[in-house]
Amino acid sequence: MVVMKFGGSSVADRAQIDKVLSIVNSAIERPVVVSSAHKGVTNALIAAATAAAAGKYEPDAVIGRQQKIARELGVDDALLEPLYREIRDLLRGIHLVKELSPRSLDYISSFGERMSVRCYKAPRGTSAEIWS
């Protein structure tokens, strides 16, 4: 089994993702691919949660960052909209109670990877599968 792990800088934008896909497609065996959040998205999620706990509810910056990357990749907004809605709801809850628990911080941080993996399409002629 071949496992390939790509960090945030490796999946920062369209050009970097094209490089990753080239590496994955050159593998002799069909690899399992693990992807991080796009560069800066996890930090933006944490910053939005911290701001929400401090009284500033501003989900649009982090969602806008992810939308820009997804649109560069030709991803339909509808694919990520349920996650965007959940981020808004979670940040609103943090804002209302003015508290960011370790559990909430872990949960908000998980959205980076969850959004990232939904942005990749298997090239035609391959049998890649993506779980999210």
Task: Give the helices and strands, then pairings.
Blueprint: E1 3-6, H1 14-25, E2 32-35, H2 41-53, H3 60-72, H4 77-97, H5 102-117
Helix pairs in contact: 2-3, 2-4, 2-5, 3-4, 4-5
The helix fraction, in percent, is 55-70%
How large is the radius of gyration? 16 Å
Unreliable spans are 122-132
CATH topology: Carbamate kinase
Strand adjacency order, main sheet: 1-2
Order of helices and strands: EHEHHHH
Explain what the structure shows.
- By secondary structure, this protein is mainly alpha-helical.
- It has one domain: Carbamate kinase.
- Helices cover 57% and strands 6% of the residues.
- It is built from 5 helices and 2 strands.
- The chain has helices at residues 14-25, 41-53, 60-72, 77-97, 102-117, and strands at 3-6, 32-35.
- The chain has a two-stranded parallel ribbon with strand order 1-2.
- Strand 1, helix 1 and strand 2 (32-35) form a beta-alpha-beta unit.
- Helix 2 packs parallel to helix 4 and helix 4 (77-97) runs antiparallel to helix 5 (102-117).
- The longest helix is centred in the middle third of the chain and has 21 residues, at 77-97.
- It is elongated.
- The chain starts with a strand and ends in a 15-residue tail after the last helix.
